[in-house]
Design goal:
- Helix content is about 10%, strand content about 50%.
- By secondary structure, it is mostly beta strands.
- It starts with 7 loop residues before the first helix and ends with a strand.
Length: about 230
């Protein structure tokens, strides 16, 4: 994988939103207000508690944080009819493979270890239907950036997850009922950078091939579900 953070996913999300948003609002024209599927969104501040599952890639060497459950909280505030900003924190209980770099490839794996990861991020969401819901639904796309920090894992290989920069696209939908609560489903891909020990590329039995990167951006497809509460209307 390239050492550069691929921006195409986030740009594609915003491109789709830019195309989809005007037609969605145009669909309101001609509706009797009493029977229109569109309703004004009156939530200007809200907090969401969420849980889900992260499918980590592990990287080309397979030693990065991998699959596991996660949970977190997000505070969101409306900036304009279509635009929302948020701050979030997410904790994940993941696993990672341990290796012995001096061993031959067939016996290099020495088991797995628990890897806790905490993600701090800030982001923006573009609400496709603006400041209105459609049959109670509010679809959106967005992007966020921040840091991820991992717990220390005793590993003779010399690899450490550390505190890498992370960023990634979001796509999701909220459902608003008559009360102050909303139900939230989101797909997220936090992309963080792994750094491998330089000694993994040399010697007669290297962990990495000459074509493999020492620094690698790794995708981590994640599914989140949550319950939101409107703090201010």
């Amino acid at each position: 994988m390239s050492n550069r953070l691929p921006p195409i996913a986030a740009l594609a999300c915003f491109g789709v939103a830019a195309l989809a948003w005007p037609p969605a609002l145009a669909g309101q024209v001609g509706h009797d207000p009493q029977h229109s599927p569109y309703r004004d969104l009156r939530a200007t501040q809200q907090i969401t508690l969420s849980g889900g599952y992260l499918g980590g890639g592990g990287g080309v060497a397979g030693v990065g944080p991998r699959q596991g459950f996660l949970g977190g909280a997000r505070f969101a505030i409306s900036l304009s009819a279509p635009l929302e900003a948020w701050l979030g924190v997410t904790g994940a209980q993941l696993t990672r493979h341990l290796i012995d770099p001096s061993a031959p490839p067939e016996s290099r794996s020495v088991g797995t270890a628990s890897q806790q990861v905490v993600i701090f991020d800030a982001g923006f969401a573009l609400r496709i239907t603006g400041a209105k819901t459609w049959h109670g639904l509010l679809p959106y796309v967005g992007a966020s950036l921040g840091t991820a920090t991992g717990s220390t894992v005793s590993d003779a290989s010399g690899f450490s997850f550390g505190t890498p920069f992370q960023a990634g696209p979001h796509v999701g939908v909220r459902f608003y009922g008559a009360g102050p609560f909303s139900v939230w489903v989101e797909g997220w891909d936090p992309i963080w950078r792994l750094r491998y020990p330089t000694g993994w590329t040399g010697g007669s039995n290297p962990v990495l091939l000459p074509s493999d990167p020492i620094k690698e951006w790794v995708h981590n497809p994640t599914l989140l579900v949550g319950l939101g509460y409107i703090l201010r209307r």
